[in-house]
From TrEMBL:
This is allantoicase. GO terms for molecular function: allantoicase activity. Its EC number is 3.5.3.4. The lineage of its organism: Eukaryota, Fungi, Dikarya, Ascomycota, Saccharomycotina. It comes from Geotrichum candidum (Oospora lactis). Pathway: Nitrogen metabolism; (S)-allantoin degradation; (S)-ureidoglycolate from allantoate (aminidohydrolase route): step 1/1. Pfam families: Allantoicase. Keywords: Hydrolase, Purine metabolism. InterPro entries: Allantoicase (IPR005164), Allantoicase_dom (IPR015908), Galactose-bd-like_sf (IPR008979).
Length: 358
């Protein structure tokens, strides 16, 4: 069994959440499959994006309203539980955040996390569960950060959170590495930056209003809240940036910068660079970054597409198409950097290409 460490928030960010993906989040497609009880508050709240909130004095027919999962008192079983299907095909797991915000006197005294791999939800009844995080104490109204010393050996499709014996948990985050399912043909174009391909944002300048990991999730979202948005800059020459480690080294054929829902706060312009840095994540000012998309203006609520110079046409869904530099045609890259000038919001960042090797 892997050793488990209790980390501070800063250490968890540095070691876990900045390097791995929350593979159960609702915005990624995580889904509650079943639960033992949700008398006071729904289990679905566990995987919602954003920090939990409190509305003092708000009641439902079941009792006080809580932004989390809360079960009834006096559970006759050892633990209450909830089963969650990952938002990716499968993933290995490295750590978890358990947030008991606003649950004080009714919080979960202890938790554990288990995982299983099944081909279909109907196989869960006979599934074999493996321990990921052992039974660990929790305190009231606080964020708890637990990390393994290594990724699990096997990937999982579903996880089971237990609370002993009952109570409330506001949010549940589970970090790991998606197990990408790549096409056998290396010439097949895929989104190398997509979270399901293993893409992850490893560094950024700012994420004041919206998190950088939103750039890599499926779909075009629903509002400005599920994109990346930085605070307003006041200094001349200011830019914001994000570095994405691609899920696999590859050749860049097409880039998309989507400003969906950003109407008065989209970037004035953008650039895209790429680099081959297989041994370490590069610094944003590394001199080896190569220009892939030259500085171009962006517009509100648009899909901006940039394609190889020798490509016949781009995506039919694109609102605006440019050409990428030919330097991207035959070079292998491991990371891409999106720079927004001077600041603003972007919904999605796609880096389509071909893997360099199997």
């Amino acid at each position: 069994m892997s050793a488990i460490s209790v980390l501070s928030h800063d250490d968890f960010v540095a070691q876990i959440s900045s390097k791995y993906t929350d593979v159960i989040g609702a915005k990624l497609g995580g889904k509650i499959i079943s639960f033992s009880d949700e008398w006071f508050a729904e289990a679905n709240n566990l995987i919602q994006p954003g920090l939990p909130i409190r509305q003092v004095g708000k009641f439902t027919p079941a009792g006080a309203w809580y932004d989390g999962w809360e079960t009834r008192r006096h559970n006759p079983e050892p633990a209450d539980w909830v089963i969650i299907k990952l938002g990716v095909a499968s993933a290995t797991i490295i750590g978890t955040e358990i947030d008991t915000a606003f649950f004080n006197g009714n919080h979960a005294p202890a938790i554990s996390v288990e995982g299983t791999f099944v081909a279909d939800d109907k196989d869960l009844d006979s599934a074999k569960w493996e321990e990921i995080i052992p039974k660990t104490e929790c305190g009231p109204s606080q964020r708890h950060f637990f990390a393994r010393d290594a990724l699990t050996e096997a990937p999982y499709t579903h996880v089971r959170l237990k609370q002993y014996p009952d109570g409330g948990i506001a949010r549940f985050r589970l970090y790991g590495k998606p197990t990408a399912v790549f096409p056998a043909d290396l010439n097949t174009e895929i989104d190398l930056a997509h979270v399901s391909s293993g893409g992850i944002a490893v560094a950024f300048s700012d994420q004041h209003f919206g998190a950088v990991d939103n750039l890599l999730i499926p779909g075009r979202g629903k509002d400005m809240g599920d994109g990346w948005e930085t605070k307003r800059s006041r200094e001349p020459g200011h830019v914001d940036w994000v570095i994405v480690k691609l899920g696999a080294p590859g050749y860049v054929d097409r880039v998309i910068v989507d400003t969906a829902n950003f109407m008065g706060n989209y970037p004035q312009s953008i650039t895209v660079h790429a680099i081959n840095s297989p041994d370490a994540d590069p610094a944003h000012d590394d001199p080896n970054w190569k220009l892939v998309v030259d500085r171009t203006k962006t517009g509100p609520h648009k899909i901006h597409e940039y394609i190889r110079a020798d490509a016949a046409s781009g995506s039919p869904d694109a609102d605006e198409t440019q050409k990428v530099l030919t330097s991207a045609n035959d070079e292998v890259f491991t990371h891409a950097k999106l720079t927004i000038i001077p600041d603003g919001g972007v919904k999605r960042f796609r880096v389509f290409g071909r893997r360099a090797s199997a």
